[in-house]
Design brief:
Layout lengths: L1 E2 L21 H4 L15 H15 L3 H14 L4 H13 L3 H14 L4 H35 L7 H20 L7 H10 L8 H20 L6 H11 L28 H12 L2 H4 L3 H15 L6 H15 L5 E2 L5 H6 L1
Antiparallel strand pairs: 1-2
Helix pairs in contact: 2-3, 3-4, 4-5, 4-6, 5-6, 7-8, 9-10, 10-14, 11-13, 13-14
């Protein structure tokens, strides 16, 4: 994930060219202890890998043991036993954040897993401390950048770099979703407004829609964020599809192996989500936590037929920009890592 240095001025801009009920409580509180679901038995290959991994771990050969555990995970990526074992090794390697991630994923598959619940109580506090230290470092770096680039509008070379970063942002945020236009083609469309010969109309509309949404974000900077604001962002992102732009989905959708909440739950969940964004509890969070939580929640609800990821990334960056942080450009080469968590 690459953080691009945006122009720091009185108002930061992205564009330098001109099914969980009672959310959010359930997503924030500790997992509820419920009966464990019946899980499929491991294959002989996985069982053998786990046995070998255990032997290496007992010999304190953690790296080798972890390699075998990851091999087992590639076969059964959602097996809570494998996830817990990886999390335990990460604790031994003094990597509490990584351990917490694996334990959290294990609890998503088996909320009643005893060892995962015990281990996560240990890793959660450690991970929060590490996280807090990183946030302090980021805050200090932000202040340095703020001072260094406060007069960036007067610096031609820096302004040119920021323009190129803007084109990169538009390119990567649509490429992550499968748009096949090259960076140069996206740049040409944004500069000249002319489409390259043979350009797919749908892909061209995604470029134009993203630019329209960015301009809207820059123009409004609406806080606290409302449900109408998110709908208006999505309407612009999907300007090439007016039937679905700014409209909640009315049927079930699937994202790989993930099944978002049913369509009838979406309006209520979005209302609760935006109320949470306006709450004192949310406002007290660090802006980076705010942006991550907003992005995660919107993609979890998956309220639209299409354009959920693009809208979530815009929402994430609007929160960061409001707090005078640089915007985040998630590159297409990082797509698998981005989707992983």
């Amino acid at each position: 994930m690459t953080i691009i240095v945006a122009c720091v001025s009185a108002r930061l801009e992205i564009c330098p060219r001109d099914v969980r009920t009672n959310y959010p409580q359930k997503i924030i509180t500790n997992p509820t202890r419920i009966p464990s679901p019946k899980l499929p038995e491991s294959s002989p290959e996985v069982t053998a890998l786990l046995s070998k991994a255990d032997k290496f771990i007992k010999q304190n050969k953690l790296k080798k043991g972890l390699e075998l555990l990851h091999q087992a995970q590639r076969i059964n990526p959602k097996d809570p036993e494998i996830l817990v074992r990886i999390g335990t090794v990460k604790v031994d390697q003094n990597e509490p954040e990584e351990a917490d991630r694996y334990l959290s994923k294990a609890l998503q598959q088996d909320p009643g897993h005893d060892l995962a619940l015990i281990m996560r109580e240990k890793t959660k506090e450690l991970a929060l401390r590490v996280d807090q230290a990183k946030l302090k470092t980021i805050d200090s770096s932000k202040e340095v950048l703020f001072e260094k680039f406060s007069s960036c509008h007067e610096n031609y070379d820096l302004t040119k770099t920021l323009n190129d970063d803007y084109y990169q942002f538009v390119y990567h945020t649509i490429a992550i979703e499968g748009n096949t236009l090259t960076f140069q083609q996206v740049r040409d469309v944004l500069i000249s407004g002319k489409a390259p010969l043979g350009t797919d109309v749908t892909e061209l509309a995604e470029v134009i829609g993203m630019e329209a949404a960015i301009r809207y974000v820059n123009r409004t900077v609406e806080f606290p964020i409302t449900e109408d604001h998110i709908l208006n962002m999505h309407r612009r992102v999907m300007s090439g599809d007016p039937d679905n732009g700014g409209e909640y989905r009315n049927h079930q959708v699937y994202v790989g192996s993930f099944s978002p909440p049913p369509p009838e739950a979406v309006p209520r969940m979005m209302e609760e989500f935006t109320k949470f964004l306006q709450s004192d509890r949310f406002q007290k969070l660090h802006p980076i936590r705010q942006s991550a939580l907003a992005h995660h929640t919107l993609t979890f609800i998956h309220p639209f037929v299409d354009g959920n990821g693009r809208t979530a990334r815009l929402l994430m960056n609007q929160i960061l920009l409001k707090a005078e942080f640089p915007y985040i450009n998630i590159k297409v080469n990082d797509r698998l890592e981005y989707y992983r968590w």
